[in-house]
Amino acid sequence: MSVRRSGPWMQAVDERILEHLAESRWASPTTMTAVLPSASSRRRIWDRCRLLSEAGLIGPLWPGTRMYEITTSGQLYLDGELNTHDVPAPGPVRVGPPPKKEERPCYTLG
After folding, report:
1. pLDDT the model gives residue 38
2. pLDDT tens digits for 19-71?
3. Residue 99 has pLDDT above 50, yes or no
4. Domain tally for the chain?
5. SS3 state of residue 38
6. Would you call 64 helix, strand, or coil by DSSP?
7. How far apart are CA 81 and CA 69, in angstroms?
8. Can you name the residues that pair with 60 across neighbouring β-strands?
9. Maximum CA extent, the chain
10. 99 or 26, greater pLDDT
């Protein structure tokens, strides 16, 4: 049995969401709220699903829907084969003001 290694951005409810999706094939935040007693609200489940989706561990069944399924990466994490320390934290990457013009990369079309 492999040990799961969660990234610092993950919370305990994230594992419950992934486990539920692995068992159920797909679910909405509303249905997950009913079956995950450790989650405090549908809003919290929705927020965590959004972050897990941004991280690539779950994904919407169809674009624009709030029904999610586990991805291959999510299943690899549950199986202990993906260390989410290696998965970039969801959300903005840069903190602070934008770089000055002279610091920005310059790309040319060729």
Report:
1. 66
2. 999 999 999 999 999 998 766 788 899 999 999 999 999 999 988 888 999 99
3. yes
4. 1
5. coil
6. coil
7. 19
8. 68
9. 56
10. 26
Helix 12-24 × helix 42-54 angle, to 10°: 80
How many whole angstroms separate alpha carbon 30 and alpha carbon 46? 8
Q: How many other CB atoms are found less than 10 A from the CB of residue 34? A: 11
SS3 49: helix
Answer whether residue 53 is part of any domain: yes
- Please name every residue paired with 70 in a beta bridge, in sequence order, or none if there are none: 58
User: 37 in a domain, yes or no?
Assistant: yes
- Cβ atoms of 84 and 52 closer than 8 Å: no
Q: Is the residue at 2 inside a domain?
A: no
Residue 4 resides in a domain: no
- Provide the 3-class DSSP secondary structure of residue 33: helix
Domain assignment of residue 29, given as a range: 12-90
Q: Give the list of residues 6+ apart from residue 78 with CB closer than 8 angstroms, or none.
A: 4, 15, 18, 19, 22, 70
Q: Domain of 79: which CATH number?
A: 1.10.10.10
